[in-house]
Write a structure and sequence with these properties.
By secondary structure, the protein is α/β, with parallel strands linked by helices. It has one domain: Rossmann fold (3-Layer(aba) Sandwich). It contains eight helices and five strands; from the N terminus they run βαβαααβααβααβ. A five-stranded parallel beta sheet has the order 3-2-1-4-5. β1, α1 and β2 form a beta-alpha-beta unit. The longest helix has 17 residues. The two termini are 12 Å apart.
Length: 162
């Protein structure tokens, strides 16, 4: 899938952190390039789970360093902006997601529960953007890439989009 052909993506938790005033250190990533990428898309999908993960991360960081206090205080406002954007779709956990979760779990693919949930939710979208090593490793696992249900998902990292 070429960059110009991408109309919808599912973002792993890492890629929602900039919306909550958290910098991410990813090769080739800038907020400006990210904005341009997102502006070309029809839909951007995010797991509800990622919101909880982002809140937990920000809470943890703010307890270690007061620099994050403003970001923590603005979390609700930033979340409201995301929820008001018609192109951003928050995915609740569904019966189909649970089916794919159980399918992956039965294959012993080496994901933790949270990663498995995000992967399961992203299959319907068809493209997951992540920097998570365990998720990226799925691309090399025969049990994943040859499964009729799971092989519908393309997994990419940021630098592979540019």
């Amino acid at each position: 899938m070429k960059l110009g052909e991408i109309l919808e993506v599912f973002l792993d938790t890492t890629f929602i952190l900039p919306f909550f005033q958290l910098d991410i250190d990813i090769d080739g990533f800038t907020v400006e390039r990210f904005r341009k990428f997102l502006s070309r898309l029809d839909k951007v999908y995010v797991s509800e789970l990622s919101i909880y993960e982002a809140k937990a991360k920000l809470f943890r960081l703010s307890r270690m360093n007061r620099v994050y206090a403003d970001a923590l205080e603005n979390f609700g406002d930033n979340l409201a902006v995301l929820r008001d954007d018609e192109r951003i779709c928050f995915r609740p956990y569904t019966k189909g997601d649970d089916f794919r979760f159980n399918l992956m779990w039965s294959k012993g693919l080496g994901l933790d529960v949270f990663d498995a949930i995000i992967v399961a939710q992203s299959v319907d979208v068809g493209l997951l953007i992540t920097e998570d090593t365990e998720i990226l490793n799925l691309r090399n696992q025969e049990a994943f890439v040859e499964d009729p249900e799971l092989k519908k998902l393309e997994i990419r990292r940021w630098k592979e989009l540019c």
